[in-house]
Design a protein that fits this description.
Radius of gyration: 17 Å
Number of strands: 6
Number of helices: 2
Shape: flat
Helix content: 10-25%
InterPro entries: Creatinase/aminopeptidase-like, Pept_M24, Pept_M24_MAP
Protein name: Peptidase M24 domain-containing protein
Structural class: alpha+beta
Strand order of the largest sheet: 1-2
Number of domains: 1
Domain Peptidase M24: 10-124
CATH class: Alpha Beta
GO molecular function: metalloaminopeptidase activity
CATH topology: Creatine Amidinohydrolase
Length: 135
């Protein structure tokens, strides 16, 4: 542990790392992230990262004017279940003048009301599923 309270970790073969970048430009907040494999990664870890990206893409594919926000979590949950994974509650969020603003985008089945509107901007993250046996 450094004297400023931060931890220094050395990446090892087989690790995965997610780099999340946030920007504030012209009064608006936004963020993006990308996951990387470090060195030699075993097949179950590669599969986990692959399914995570597929979940994000399936969530995005649900988006269109008039569709319930619930459709995003449904698509993600259906895909995760095929692989025997589970997801801790994880959310995307609106992009705007307030960081992590409405709408809240659940990546699991949810019961929140709300419908997508053309021109609305929000994030859909890569929800990291976990093998159900590891819980």
């Amino acid at each position: 542990k450094r004297n400023d309270g931060c931890f220094l970790l050395t990446l090892q073969d087989g690790d995965i790392i997610n780099i999340d970048v946030t920007i504030y430009l012209n009064g608006y907040h936004g963020d993006t992230s990308r996951t990387y494999l470090c060195g030699e990664v075993d097949e179950p870890t590669k599969q986990l990262v692959k399914v995570t990206k597929e979940c994000m893409l399936r969530g995005i594919s649900a988006c269109k004017h008039g569709v319930s926000f619930k459709a995003i979590g449904e698509r993600i949950s259906e895909h995760v279940n095929k692989y025997g994974y589970s997801i801790d509650p994880f959310i995307g969020h609106g992009v705007g003048t307030i960081f992590h603003s409405e709408p809240i985008i659940w990546h699991t089945y949810d019961y929140e009301p709300g419908f997508m509107v053309a021109g609305q901007t929000f994030t859909i993250g890569k929800p990291l599923p976990w093998p159900s046996s590891s819980r």
